[in-house]
Design a protein that fits this description.
This protein is an alpha/beta fold. The protein is built from 28 helices and 22 strands. Strands 1-5-7-8-9-10-11 form a 7-stranded parallel β-sheet. The chain has a 5-stranded parallel β-sheet with strand order 17-18-19-20-21. It has a two-stranded antiparallel ribbon with strand order 2-3. Strand 9, helix 11 and strand 10 form a beta-alpha-beta unit. It binds ligand 39S, methionine and zinc ion (ZN). Keywords: Amino-acid biosynthesis, Metal-binding, Methionine biosynthesis, Methyltransferase, Repeat, Transferase, Zinc. Catalyzes the transfer of a methyl group from 5-methyltetrahydrofolate to homocysteine resulting in methionine formation. It catalyses: 5-methyltetrahydropteroyltri-L-glutamate + L-homocysteine = tetrahydropteroyltri-L-glutamate + L-methionine. Pathway: Amino-acid biosynthesis; L-methionine biosynthesis via de novo pathway; L-methionine from L-homocysteine (MetE route): step 1/1.
Length: 774
């Protein structure tokens, strides 16, 4: 129990039904368009702020009218909520402040870099496809309440007649997500700053209280992962202190993306008024909660409506979970399991999705309606909503009986044997590949995509609108492929790519060509900053009706004597970046996708492609947050990749590519993929991953990225040469590949051309040095 007495204050209005957060890009990506127009100098700050205000007002009024008991506030962001928090806490690194820009431009400079000021690192947000900017902290960091965004947005909503519950990233998760600033001592940990940080949160709570805020939500998702005793002690200390603040709003602490484990007991013993638990990703939380006497006086938000996936809720099951909690908690209200940031706005706009499949789906708006309905059932009894419950039951029954079963696919999976996932000895393969390809040491290549020019995107938009024929579209893409091939020949790369111009996205494109998936038209979700994706919906058994990439890749190969790499997205990444069915184990779905890709890999080989890359950038992303679940995941993930790729002969070279990750936890799985060549993000971390690979005895080809494509900066030749030398110190030249960190689709040719020339020149220099040394 806390030994700090909490200040007596009037009981807050009950929370009622709610969601933990909401999409913020605008129903038609208005924010993306406005932010990008602002960056390009086409609109000014006033215009950008008008777009932001209109998205916020539409969100608040919409949520109020939908009948939520408590409307979340401060869920808007111009780029990222972690950066917003760093700005609010006055923790923006000096290199951005020194630029002397106004607050909004300083903010964007931290997000995107400017001149010599490299941007904050961007990394995966838990196990999602959202990316946040990593705060940099050191022993000299001084926090101060430097921005009033949560208060200002509260007042803005009030003026529109909506009372909101500001959502703020919690202090402990903020510190756990931060990293040590480069100039900080090695043994510094951001969590050591907790005592310095808490006064700022105390001040924030005071100001929110003064503004009339009744409830504030502090998010602590970091506790859905394994945490140390020290982390738990920090959580306890933080909420003991924050709950002792005088005249503060009532505190709701939200944990999501999994069960809170021991953190739940810690929170139950602090003076916070409410906790939100994720009963979808962490269903066992129901049992964890029942033993906690500390909850008897608290409100529990039961996260029973999935905030991450798009299936309609099993309302009976959800009500059952809520009912169990009624006996444990002071009061229970219904909520989404996580912020709705990861789902699109409105399924009713998807008129091209088969109506049966569409009837199974709920996007953000529909989820809000489910939450409201469940709350009515919980408070007024099921009789009041009997009709709605019966309707939902019928849809659910329809889904489980239909579920697009493909008996042929299931029979093929049942017939698989270990040899379908095993290739021959690597040394034998390497020899056969060298005979066929005759590549020099330090061979150069790229990761697949070339800049998606306005012309390409416009052509695709015209075709979608029916204003460009399929033939004309294909003709234009072929012209682009030829241009990209000639460009690479001119630069002098060794292994070429076709450039992926025909792909809207590396996952959506494949989903559009596989059975068992539905693509959306408007289902945009933020991935980072202004970049969005439309995750496809994997609703049935997966199969490949016809070859997908073979025409494009063999056309590219027909244009050149140099080897062209076939280019596919791997099964784990296709799953990670889709909305996947929740009615069978992920492992089974992965095997189906892998089997479809296996057919594509073999068709590419038969068409004369000697090198085939199967991208798995999301291998790390799907790694379970809790260590206990990891071995099982890695086992099926590796199996799926091997099933997709092991059907080729020894002489066909399989590449894979990984990015956006800290690889330490999956390094053995990377080895287990058994790819002949692994290209991997490394430029920003200065080749750290090579030491990890060396340690586990990895001995196949490796291409650590020597050009950071996530920044508009063009590296100088000396910089690339430095990275190549660092790599050569860890890997022999014959096994070393020279390539960028990732695909080039988000970059422009003015950056790409000099960067690739630098890369080829650095390889040539290192090659000459190697030859001289022999
Ligand atoms: N799914 C996925 N997740 C990923 C990645 C990825 O590549 N894919 N990469 C990592 C980083 N995340 C990223 C996410 C998105 C983008 C990205 O570039 N997204 C594009 C959209 C890509 C797309 O779907 N393009 C479509 C639609 C393009 C579009 O907006 N068209 C306009 C019309 C254009 C015109 O008329 O000129 C429209 O529809 O309004 C196409 O090319 O066909 C964007 O936000 O701008 C990049 C990286 C991790 N996660
Ligand atoms: C996010 S990984 C990207 C791999 C893909 N082949 C590309 O180059 O775009
Ligand atoms: Zn990549």
């Amino acid at each position: 129990m806390t030994d700090v007495p909490t200040t007596p204050r009037p009981a807050p209005t009950p929370l009622g039904s709610t969601v933990l957060g909401y999409p913020r890009i605008g129903r038609d990506r208005e924010l993306k368009r406005a932010v990008e127009a602002y960056w390009a100098g086409r609109i000014d700050q006033d215009e950008l702020r008008r777009v932001g205000a209109s998205i916020r007002s539409e969100t608040w009024t919409g949520l109020l009218e939908a009948g939520l008991g408590s409307v979340p506030g401060n869920t808007f962001s111009y780029y990222d909520q972690v950066l917003d928090t760093a700005v609010m806490l006055g923790a923006v690194p000096d290199r951005f402040r020194r630029l002397g820009l106004d607050p909004l431009d300083t903010y964007f400079a931290a997000a995107r870099g400017r001149g010599d000021a490299a941007p904050l690192e961007m990394t995966k947000w838990f196990d999602t496809n959202y990316h946040y900017l990593v705060p940099e902290l050191g022993p000299d960091t001084e926090f101060s309440l430097s921005d009033d965004k949560p208060v200002a947005e509260y007042r803005e909503a009030r003026a529109l007649g909506v009372t909101t519950r500001p959502v703020v990233l919690g202090p402990v998760t903020f510190l756990l997500l931060a990293k040590r600033a480069e100039d900080a001592p090695e043994d510094f940990t951001p969590l050591s700053l907790l005592d310095r940080l808490l006064p700022v949160y105390e001040r924030l709570l005071t100001e929110l209280g003064e503004a009339g805020v009744e409830w504030v939500q502090l998010d602590e998702p970091a506790f859905a992962a394994d945490r140390s005793e020290g982390d738990l002690a920090a959580l306890r200390a933080a909420y003991d202190r924050l709950s002792a603040v005088a005249n503060r709003p009532a505190l709701l602490v939200a944990g999501y993306y999994g069960d809170l484990g021991p953190a739940l007991g810690v929170l139950a013993d602090t003076g916070v008024e409410a906790v939100a638990v994720d009963l979808v990703a962490g269903p066992s939380s129901v049992d964890d909660l029942t033993g906690l006497s500390g909850l008897r006086t608290k409100t529990v938000l039961a996260g029973v409506v999935d905030g991450r996936n798009i299936w309609r809720t099993d309302l009976d099951a959800a009500l059952g979970a809520c009912a169990t909690l009624l006996g444990v908690a002071g009061s229970v209200h219904v909520s989404s399991s996580a912020p709705l940031l990861h789902v699109p706005y409105d399924v009713r706009r998807e008129t091209r999705i088969d109506p049966t499949v569409r009837s199974w789906l709920a996007f953000a708006e529909q989820k809000v309606a489910e939450v409201v309905l469940l709350e009515r059932a919980l408070t007024g009894g099921t009789g009041e909503v009997a009709e709605e419950l019966a309707g939902a039951r019928e849809v659910l029954a329809g889904r489980s009986s239909a579920a697009g079963r493909n008996h042929q696919v299931r029979a093929q999976i049942d017939a698989l044997r270990p040899e379908h996932r095993t290739r021959g000895d690597y040394e034998v393969r390497a020899k056969a590949q060298q005979d066929k390809l005759g590549l020099p040491p330090l061979a150069t290549t790229t990761i697949g995509s070339f800049p998606q020019t306005d012309d390409i995107r416009r052509a695709r938009a015209l075709r979608r609108a029916g204003r460009l024929s399929e033939d004309e579209y294909r003709r234009r893409m072929r012209i682009e492929i030829e241009r990209v091939i000639r460009f690479q020949e001119d630069i002098g790369l060794d292994v070429l790519v076709h450039g992926e111009p025909e792909r809207n996205d590396m996952v959506q494109y494949f989903a559009e060509h596989l059975d068992g998936f539905a693509a959306t038209e408007h289902g945009w979700v933020q991935s980072y900053g202004s970049r969005c994706v439309r995750p496809p919906i994997l609703h049935g058994d997966v199969s490949r009706p016809a070859p997908i990439t073979v025409d494009w890749s063999s056309y590219a190969q027909s244009l050149t004597d140099r080897p062209v790499k076939g280019m596919l997205t791997g099964p784990v990444t296709i799953l990670a970046w889709s909305f996947v069915r929740d009615d069978q184990p992920l492992a089974d779905t992965a095997a189906q996708v892998a089997l479809a890709l296996r057919g594509e890999v073999r068709d590419l080989e038969a068409a004369g492609l000697r090198v085939i890359q199967v991208d798995e950038p999301a291998l790390r992303e799907l790694l379970p947050l809790r260590a206990a679940d990891r071995a099982a995941y890695l086992s099926w993930a590796v199996d799926a990749f091997r099933l997709a790729t092991a059907g080729v002969s020894d002489g066909t070279q399989i590449h894979t590519h990984l990015c956006y990750s800290e690889f330490g936890d999956v390094i053995e799985a990377i080895d287990g993929l058994d790819a002949d060549v692994t290209t991997i993000e490394a430029a920003r971390s200065r080749m750290e991953v090579l030491a990890d690979l060396h340690e586990i005895g990895y001995r196949r080809g490796v291409g650590p990225g020597v050009y950071d494509i996530h920044s508009p900066r063009v590296p100088a030749v000396e910089e690339v040469t430095g990275l190549v030398e660092a790599a050569l110190a860890a890997v022999p030249g014959q096994r070393l590949w020279i390539n960028p960190d990732c695909g080039l689709k988000t970059r422009g040719y003015p950056e790409v051309e000099p960067a690739l020339r630098a890369l080829v020149s650095a390889s040539a220099t290192a090659r000459a040095a190697l030859a001289g040394a022999e």
